[in-house]
Amino acid sequence: MTVSVVEVSPRDGLQNEAAIVDTPDKLALITTLAAAGLRRIEAVSFVHPGRVPQMADAEAVAAGLPRARVSWIGLVLNERGLDRALAAAVDEVNVVVVATDTFSHRNQGVDTAAGIAAWARIGARAREAGLRTTVTVAAAFGCPFEGAVSPERVRTVLADCVAAAAPDEVALADTIGVGVPAQVRALAATAATEARGIPLRWHFHNTRNTGYANALTAADLAGATPVALDSSAGGIGGCPFAPAATGNIATEDLLYLLHQSGYDTGVDVETLLPLASRLSTLLGHEVPGQLARAGLFPPA
Amino acid sequence: MTVSVVEVSPRDGLQNEAAIVDTPDKLALITTLAAAGLRRIEAVSFVHPGRVPQMADAEAVAAGLPRARVSWIGLVLNERGLDRALAAAVDEVNVVVVATDTFSHRNQGVDTAAGIAAWARIGARAREAGLRTTVTVAAAFGCPFEGAVSPERVRTVLADCVAAAAPDEVALADTIGVGVPAQVRALAATAATEARGIPLRWHFHNTRNTGYANALTAADLAGATPVALDSSAGGIGGCPFAPAATGNIATEDLLYLLHQSGYDTGVDVETLLPLASRLSTLLGHEVPGQLARAGLFPPA
Known about the structure:
2 copies of one chain form a homodimer. Chain A is of the alpha/beta class. Chain A has helices at residues 9-13, 23-35, 58-64, 79-88, 101-108, 112-128, 151-164, 181-194, 211-220, 251-260, 269-283, 291-294; strands at residues 4-7, 40-46, 71-76, 92-98, 132-138, 169-174, 200-204, 227-231. Chain A has one domain: Aldolase class I (TIM Barrel, Alpha-Beta Barrel). An 8-stranded parallel beta barrel of chain A has the order 1-2-3-4-5-6-7-8, surrounded by 9 helices. The first copy, chain A, is globular and about 50 Å long. At the A-B interface, helix 8, helix 9, helix 10 and helix 12 of A face helix 8, helix 9, helix 10 and helix 12 of B. Chains A, B: Pfam families: HMGL-like.
């Protein structure tokens, strides 16, 4: 069985850190990620540098990316971001639509309907330009401001996104780390009807220690439709506009779980292990990933 | 659906901490645990105080336990420990048999076969004295010294334990936190044949971020035979004789996962949340449980 892992530490990881990592250090991180065998890497976010100063060097990072073998992803929220993504020549764009109006306003200044309309314009232009597109439904498992998000709401948002412009991939995000496997199963069923035949991607945070169980559940649900899982080296990251949204699931811990469960990912965990301490040094705090501390088992 | 949670912070939690918590603080912790609705609490370990100084006050702790409503568990490794458990009038004894000879020697100075023979003597006497008994197969998911532990080895150890003396409960322990859900399912099938009809208990550590996925898998397997899950407030604990075996799964994080998944435990999470910071203060370091930092969801 194969599961695809999408590395998001350079983007979702670093954008939530107080420390601003400079461009050469970002590129060194990215080089190690690619060397480990990660083949899709969300490397930059084309958002307003005043809002997310950690991503202000997006163009410089994009210019330094090694072009071979990896599909490079840039996050965009509007057409201005798409213009930058096109100029930077990334391979894919990831467009975020937030499932709740309150969080959508805080995150990108518009309500959900306006976010979907933006996705429609971005998706059409990106496709025309030959970029792969992902639409991510954020806060699909719960909202830090509105609380529980009904499955019916996610169903509507997802259906409206797909109707607005068919993406190459749909992602469902537990932006604030509140979900459990039963929700993963329910949302997978929703995606199977509302985004039929479109590959599914999942984005989990481990804020309440449910992220790895959710990820394995999503992997176990992979059938005819491929499944991709987002993760972040060291487990760094979160969302600057969602309180207490710390901690993507850590790539190395996810890989341990997947490999021990019989999944093939094509990624070499040992190459990634030194990143935990390197990131701890760069960011000035211990990272939440645990495998680098505990070690592989059985020991290599 | 109901799952029973067995609280182990006063025993497995505190015995792995460098700081020695004094008896009144232990009893204050235990009082909060009982107030939250936990009905089985592993409160003490009747082991040699020279080997585990954190448990040297076992008799004093046992003497201070409120007798109503809770079934108090003491861990014992030999008949001397059983004598102390009987004198201290605990309700249950938990007897550890380590699945590998190397780890068994390090943990309790005898090989696995001698551990099973000790269980036979302890089990028979405990039952005669009217105590409930659990036999725990430790390192059932992997050994820090011998590496992978074959399912066949666990099958044999489990069968030999049950043949030696029928316990009221069988526990399977991932002592060093290396297991994944596929192993939980395989070992549950082993227990269903080798310990047929005997209630099953699971002991997970989150050392490599697989503990909560394992626990939910075990809960999902509960059918005709009841399932109990060990956890430790704040996620404190480990094993002093197993390298890098830090981190039981945290009771409050486990409860969040179980409750959001539709399980009833009878335990009030909010009552437990203040324990994380109290334990951090007592132990001099932040505890690994995350729910107390992130907060319940939806917010209460």
